[in-house]
Design goal:
alpha/beta, five-stranded parallel beta sheet, 40% helix
């Protein structure tokens, strides 16, 4: 039997803003990183005012920031914000940019800033410095630990989630699954629905996600794949029971199935994606696709999802980014993608709509009423 004490603990566990009360205003670095794009495009959805955008010296004239008329500077002052949000700056290939990142972190420490970090390497660096110094800064890393798993097991006998669960799946990475989740959350909340969000991106908590399961790049999920299923199903049930949303939304990382043969590799990310899919067991699926995807690849993806969930795709979301095959297989080709112009985008959208026999949407520009009606109809079946 669940006690009142456990009830309070669960509500804190299922709310980032109840767990972390010391964040008031944030700055983000590096703003040119993929994971930081939402802080620019969806600044209005972030739960905390964004004071500064910092970036690498090599990309100081950040086009994405400038076109939104947002401030970009590389000076740390004492009173302008309290928490620095740090992405994966250690991955940058230019040593000067990495050194700049460490200098920025050290300046922030001197000004008693707190830190919300994505990268466990930076987390370890900061916690080591703080524990052996006069600094009192707080450091938070989104993660799932064995202790979290044991805590959540207290709620394994809760009833199955009463609200529908919507999940975005996709044919590859970097195609807007998280953006799709944020947009759907926004339009449903504008309609008056209570939406809960399980994010697999570390920045998700800053956008109001009830919980984070960051198993993607530099995963900080510290439980075994075998424990995914029970943790995720119990998490959905607990969110439904304690937070009482009208709908839960989430999405996996990367592509659901590999684009290349598995060969003799000891590990493949698709294994985690299948575990996540089976653990969540969504009622509604939205599939994100790329302009250069083959119909065979798309059908293979949705057939795998159906095999695990018996859930058909509600509609597709077409990314405007045309990516080369090399980029999909190798990060070194990251800059080989290009944005389709509106005419070419509409041609691809019409092509997929005809071949897939399902609606295909531009999630950023499509009629909100159409999207809401599609989701409402799916939930009422």
């Amino acid at each position: 039997m669940i006690t009142n004490g456990y009830d309070n603990a669960a509500r804190i566990f299922l709310s980032f803003q109840k767990r972390i009360t010391w964040i008031k205003q944030i700055s983000v670095f590096p703003s040119s990183e993929k994971e930081m794009k939402q802080f620019i495009d969806f600044k209005h959805l972030c739960k905390y005012p964004i004071i500064n955008y910092y970036d690498f010296p090599r990309t100081i004239h950040n086009i994405e920031v400038r076109k939104h008329d947002l401030s970009l500077n590389n000076n740390v002052s004492e009173n302008d914000y309290d928490t620095l949000v740090l992405g994966y700056f250690y991955d940058n290939m230019w040593e000067g940019n990495v050194n700049f990142g460490y200098n920025l972190v050290n300046k922030a420490l001197e000004h008693n800033k707190n830190f919300f970090v994505f990268d466990i390497r930076i987390y370890n660096y900061l916690t080591n410095i703080i524990s052996n110094s006069k600094y009192k800064s707080k450091v938070y890393l989104p993660r799932v630990t064995s202790r979290d798993y044991e805590f959540l097991l207290n709620y394994k006998h809760l009833p199955v989630a009463k609200c529908p669960i919507l999940m975005t799946i996709g044919t590859s990475n970097k195609q807007g699954k998280f953006t799709t989740q944020l947009k759907i959350k926004e339009i449903l909340e504008e309609e008056g629905y209570v939406v809960s969000h399980i994010s697999t991106e570390p920045q998700g908590e800053l956008f109001g996600a009830d919980h984070c399961f960051p198993y993607g790049h530099m995963s900080t999920v510290e439980i075994s794949p075998r424990q995914f299923l029970q943790f995720l199903r119990t998490l959905c049930n607990a969110i439904s029971y304690f937070n009482k949303p009208d709908i839960i939304i989430t999405g996996h990382q990367g592509g659901l199935i590999p684009r290349l043969a598995l060969n003799a590799m000891p590990y493949f990310p698709s294994v985690d994606n299948l575990g996540f899919l089976h653990g969540i067991l969504p009622d509604i699926i939205i599939c994100t696709i790329n302009p250069e995807d083959s119909i065979e690849m798309i059908n293979n993806t949705i057939n795998v999802a159906y095999a695990y969930t018996k859930c058909k795709v509600l509609f597709y979301v077409l990314s405007p980014i045309m990516r080369t095959q090399e980029e999909m297989y190798d990060e070194i080709y990251l800059n080989s993608s290009k944005m389709l112009n509106e005419i070419d985008y509409q041609k691809r959208l019409s092509y997929f709509q005809e071949k897939l026999n399902k609606p295909v949407y531009n999630i950023l520009n499509n009629d909100k009423k159409l999207l809401i009606k599609a989701i409402e109809d799916a939930c009422s079946r």
